[in-house]
What we know:
This protein has a 3-stranded antiparallel β-sheet. A 3-stranded antiparallel β-sheet has the order 4-5-6. The chain contains 18 helices and 6 strands. The longest helix is centred in the middle third of the chain and has 27 residues, at 166-192. By secondary structure, the protein is mainly alpha-helical. The structure holds carboxymethyl coenzyme *A (CMC). The site of carboxymethyl coenzyme *A has 20 residues, from helix 17.
Amino acid sequence: MAAKATTTRESAGTVTLTVDATGESFTLPLHRGSVGPTVFDIRKLYAETGMFTFDPAFMSTASCESRITFIDGEQGLLLYRGYPIEELAEHSNFMEVTHLLLYGELPTKRELDALTNNITGHTMIHEQLTQLFRGFRRDAHPMAIMVGVVGAMSAFYHDHHDIYDSGERMIAALRLIAKIPTIAAMAYKYSIGQPFVYPRNDLGYAENFLHMMFSVPAEEYVVNPVLARAIDDIFILHADHEQNASTSTVRLAGSSGANPFACIAAGIACLWGPAHGGANEAVLSMLGEIGSRDRIPEFIARAKDKDDPFRLMGFGHRVYKNFDPRANVLRTRAHEVLETLGIRDDQLLDLAMELERIALEDEYFVKRRLYPNIDFYSGIILQAMGIPPSLFTVLFAIARTVGWCAQWAEMMGDPSQKIGRPRQLYTGEPQRPYVPIDQR
Ligand code: CMC
């Protein structure tokens, strides 16, 4: 089943661009989506004017048309296919959300059962792929292993998928979504020297992940439902976030017609950075570095100092300039998890709460609208559950695989799809003749 098309873009008239230096005027079409800002369509700008636009970090550029996720950063709104993230976190589960993102609608009971069967039917990885882990150093960062092993999946399915067929695209997506928790848990087991734990298809998606992470052959492991629910919520909240850096990476890689497993590996590589998915790990190492309440002012001062590269990890967002709605959900979950685990006097949590309080009152942060983001709270929850910080971004990657796949499938299904190819503002040397080495 392909995603349903429910809305289309509308014409919103035109905009006139006047070049002051020459007095020339050009008319550009304006488009309106279903919600959100109107866009100037500059696709023919170069052909008609000989000029490019300049927007290096895509601050004002819509790189594609999409029906999947909508964010209004001013209002703190995040919608998956029109549904608010808070309602999905409260009433739904990750499998339902997977269906919603991939196919465009919440599933009926039958559709949900079919999807769950499809996913659980693909949770094991090719046995030969398990050999690959042994090539990594024991102390390899799990994200390095993820990039390598997910990329290597392309060697196992290199000619199986016709990426121009919507059904085949969904098979690739389901394989990825099913296998990524298995690969993630294996990366963890490998790093601590424990045997790999095979998936259990009678367990839910989050439960099975916890089982593969924490069970050992020597004793029974029973998954705590509160923890499984918290992981499921973390997966829901991280599943998609429109055209963020890693999703744009997946789209750009996919735009050349590359293998989907290789495209997702590219997304994982991008997600790893501390300005993106790596921030939740960075929050924990920052709290460790701060160490005690009395040192918080010193770190706040460093965050404000323009000559110091230090930033308060887990604060600020490119899009959310009011609050991060995902952080609101996770703040509540964080308290539930700590209560369930009986953690009351945790020093790191205490530090985190104090940091949150000070930053929310401090003029520097208030003026720049720097609020705690999702990574601030997810780091605290995962730490309390005994998941090592180096695995935090890996969990993000598990969840975001659904969004990456939905976005990749949407792009590949667009008949006007072309290879992505930005232009540049060149400021290097103009053409000059080659100088032989003895004359330099
Ligand atoms: N600590 C201190 N100052 C900050 C911070 C911070 N965390 N974030 C932004 N600022 C300041 C920045 O110095 C700038 O100040 P000024 O206007 O005086 O020059 C102003 O706030 C605007 O910042 P910006 O760099 O223009 O904002 P951006 O949209 O480019 O960056 C960000 C967004 C998320 C990369 C940045 O806020 C940051 O580095 N935060 C810490 C890392 C983090 O928590 N990342 C996770 C993002 S949420 C997960 C996800 O969706 O991937």
